[in-house]
Design goal:
Blueprint lengths: L1 E2 L6 E2 L25 E2 L2 H10 L4 E6 L4 H16 L5 E6 L4 H7 L6 E6 L2 E7 L4 H12 L1
Parallel strand pairs: 3-5, 4-5
Antiparallel strand pairs: 1-2, 4-6, 6-7
Helix pairs in contact: 2-4
């Protein structure tokens, strides 16, 4: 399953799909790389509530050094689990509501959601192998 960055719809894409797949709702090209997607508070809420696959959310801010260190790790994890996991990024400076609702006090904080509910939380950056193991353990 892949989330359309334009409209937020989830799309099923077969493994052997030829060419660039398009969104079934808005007909724009889908990014099937698994790269993290920036979302606002509404996009976050819709994705978590409706995703048929686990969602890993990175709560971060541009001024946060550890957040910047985590970015390539999340990109790697997202690409490795493309289609089986959706990776989202919420800038807590621009969109403070989701982190306030979840009681997040420090960044970076990573939260895995399954079926619209929080399944696991990790505060602080882990080295790439440990982050990949943590995500795998939470997302299945």
């Amino acid at each position: 399953m892949f989330r359309c960055p334009s409209c937020g719809a989830f799309n099923r894409v077969s493994a052997g799909h030829a060419g660039v797949p398009t969104c079934g709702r808005c007909k724009k090209d889908l990014d099937t790389s698994g790269a993290p997607q920036e979302v606002d508070a509404d996009g976050y809420a819709r994705a978590v509530a409706s995703s048929p696959v686990p969602v890993l959310v990175d709560f971060w801010a541009p001024w946060c050094g550890p957040c910047r260190m985590a970015a390539p790790i999340l990109d790697q994890v997202g690409r490795q689990k493309a289609g089986a996991l959706v990776v989202l990024k919420v800038n807590t400076d621009e969109h403070p509501q989701p982190s306030a609702q979840l009681g997040i006090r420090g960044i970076p904080t990573f939260v895995v959601f399954k079926g619209g509910r929080e399944a696991a939380r990790q505060s602080g950056v882990l080295p790439a192998p440990q982050m990949a193991q943590w995500v795998e353990a939470q997302s299945g």
